[in-house]
Amino acid sequence: MQICPRLVLRRALIAVCLALSLTTAVHAQAPSATKPTAQIQTLKITVLSTMLVGETKGIGEWGFSALVEADGHRILVDTGSRPETVLSNARELNVDLSNVHEVILTHNHGDHVGGLMTLRREMMKQDPAALSVVHVAKGIFYSRPSPEGEANDMIAIRKEYEATGGKIIEHQDGAEIFAGAWLSGPVPRKYPEHNWSVKGKVQTPAGLVEDTIPEDQSLVLNTSRGLVIVTGCGHAGIVNILTYATASYSNQPVYAVVGGLHLFPANDEQVNWTGDEFKQFRVSNLLGAHCTGIEAVYRLRDRAGLSRNSAVVGTVGSTFTLADGIKTGPLAK
Predict the structure, then answer these.
(1) Radius of gyration for the chain, computed over Cα atoms and rounded to the nearest angstrom
(2) The pLDDT of residue 17
(3) In angstroms, what CA-CA distances link 241 with 41, 186, 209, 265?
(4) In 3D, which of 264, 325, 269 has the Cα closest to residue 296?
(5) E strands in the chain
(6) Which of 62, 88, 232, 291 has its CA 20 to 30 A from that of 196?
């Protein structure tokens, strides 16, 4: 039986088109299905603003800031509360921020954004690109009306910052900022972790509602030893954050949680539950800074089965590295 050449050609073209269609569909779904597998090999996180100092260097404040250095990338997470604190602490700790070009702001609260303009203006004297890009999540610019007027400092800061030539990138969802480093974007609140203490309202597209800090985001670092999560206050709830972060990294343990978890006002039941959940996520290290709470760090240590060296109260100048774990001043040892 002889097959018509035109029929053979037609079938071949159909097969090619079908293959291309399937390939396009797979590529279109891949980014939303899983995160890329790039892994960070070298990592150092240095706390530049938190409540305590662990030695004679630095100034403590109610705020948070940390420098993240990963495989040659340097990015600042939050900028502390008072305008000069992070600038002063960085200088005293011999941490150069002039070649840091990007900033992550975890949410709108003043104790995380207060140092941005001072740092930008001072560092751009040495490098106009210093701290010239800020990553934020959707909701950070929502109005927070109060009897005294606008309560969201970020609305005014945005105008000042952009006037210096700075660029703000507002993320509606999670986003990769460099290989192995992801912003969570707004985190789904699967569990009812009421990890915020403000009683104000926020003007959203849906109307004026309770301010749950909807823009709260964290930095997720996919390292060779597991995931490292950097939080500002963890207003979305650290278990919600871990649940969301690990969903795209099957079988990856959480090697470290660094930052504020806003558990200082939590009751024993909530902290115990959180510590038990840490076990499920195989959390190996906790550097509980800022609003985590001193008692909460100790209780989490006990419930998660961590040691005195692997669950520590964060201090100004504390560091976390893949090679050496947590290093802090003598007061926090």
Answers:
(1) 22
(2) 36
(3) 23, 10, 22, 19
(4) 264
(5) 43-49, 65-70, 73-77, 102-104, 133-137, 145-146, 149-150, 167-171, 175-178, 181-183, 201-204, 207-210, 219-223, 226-231, 254-259, 285-288, 311-313, 319-321, 325-327
(6) 88
- On the question of pLDDT at 190 being above 70, the answer is yes
Looking at residue 292, what DSSP letter applies?
G
- Indicate if the pLDDT at residue 156 is higher than 80: yes
Stronger pLDDT, 19 or 114, i.e. the higher one: 114
The CATH T-level fold of domain 37-325 is Metallo-beta-lactamase; Chain A (3.60.15)
For residues 224 and 232, what is the distance between their CA atoms, to the nearest angstrom? 23
The encoded tokens of residue 165 equal 């030539």
Give the residue among 68, 78, 65, 46 at the shortest CA–CA distance from 181: 68
Q: Which amino acid is at 62?
A: W
CB atoms within 10 A of CB 304: 22
Write the pLDDT tens digit of every residue in 223-282: 999 999 999 999 999 999 999 999 988 778 999 999 999 999 999 999 999 999 999 999
Strand partners, 254: 227
Question: What pLDDT is stored for residue 35 in this prediction?
Answer: 55
User: What is the CB neighbour count within 10 angstroms for residue 20?
Assistant: 10
